[in-house]
Amino acid sequence: MARKTESRRKELRDNLVIIAERTIASDGLGALRARDLAKEAGCAVGAIYNVFGDLTDLTLAVNARTFHRLGADVAEALADAPQNPVEQLVIMAQAYHRFAAQNHFSWRALFDVERAPGEAAPDWYLQEMGRLFAYISDPLAVIFPDKDATEIALMTRALFSSVHGIVLLGLDEASAGVPSDDIDRMIALVLRQITTSE
Known about the structure:
mainly alpha, elongated, single chain
């Protein structure tokens, strides 16, 4: 009986993640509502909270899948990249831009999810983020062999923040006034400047 109950919980959990993922992708994180989820999943609202602590936990589960897809896109872009580590950074950053443009609401949900002040993300969530950061830190370690792991980690976050900011503002043309076609050029200019001026 316990095994059957656990199987049903897992089935409901997986179904809710798929429904939430589809909702976020089409309408944004703000469209995620417990009643709508329960109706589509064919369950009671309370059943959602039997498998997820709250909608934030559900969003984190969706976001982990989004991080995984983003990492796969970056890996695919790097498969044919030159051995030059600077150009590898440019290629992966441009792949990040493409993913954000093609999966805008899902990408925004990665950063718009709300947590209580001081509350850390779950370990599995941080691991997905860590895998993404590894794509950045590996070429940086080649470019700057004299920097220690702490400095490389700081540079990794700095470069990610720089690229993310360009993409975020670039995709909001009303605020930044940056044509979409110029975003990749801006990314390349910034990364090449930063990585060759140290």
